[in-house]
Amino acid sequence: MDTHLDTPVYYIEGRTDRAGNKIGSLLTELYAKSDSNFEELVFLCIGSDRITGDSLGPLIGHRLAKEHLNRCCIYGTLANPVHALNLQETVESVKKEHPNSLTVAIDASLGSKKHQGFVTVGQGSLEPGLGVKKKLPPVGDISITGIVNLSGAFEHFLLQTTRLSTVMELADAIVSGILVAHRQYFGTRRPSLLAFFHPEEERRRSLTKLTPLSAESAAARPKGS
């Protein structure tokens, strides 16, 4: 799957009270716009639990796994993270074990100062490691990222010094949104709300401003672990 540069990517401020509802409404709409014949949702939560800035995906996977959501499968938790070293193997397993699924890829990212602490939601895959020239498979039919810190120089240092409170706020918003979408999509459908959201142009101009971090964090993993 390729990253779709012409597909709108929606930005939601993670710390607002209604962030979960906004994320949930967007996800519900994107589920409906996808193949209506999918049998289950697969949440592919990418990242490492060893570095604060890259722990967003595993933290979300850990929390979703405790919900035991109907028709949902979770890959990537704190106990069993999905990162650069096992991503290809995991993607192949998902294709084999869940051939009629819709995959939602979740990862941490870096972005501009004005978007730090924001959640992005979009239709199409994300490419882990894109900004660090790592060749990893694009993943997901729908992508969610949490912008944990600023893009630029010294990204290893930024990952290691990212505030846990920022990661937790983003995780809270994303998990809440996923739960809202699960109730809406598998329960009573609601009218489309996409018209009330305005996609940012920044992502479409340059993916370097929103870079998934899994490959970066793998390189920074302590030796001998």
UniProtKB/TrEMBL annotation:
It comes from the Bacteria. Signal peptide: none annotated. The keyword Transcription does not apply. Transmembrane segments: none annotated. GO terms for molecular function: peptidase activity. One of its GO terms (biological process) is proteolysis. SUPFAM superfamilies: HybD-like. Keywords: Hydrolase, Protease. This is Spore protease YyaC.
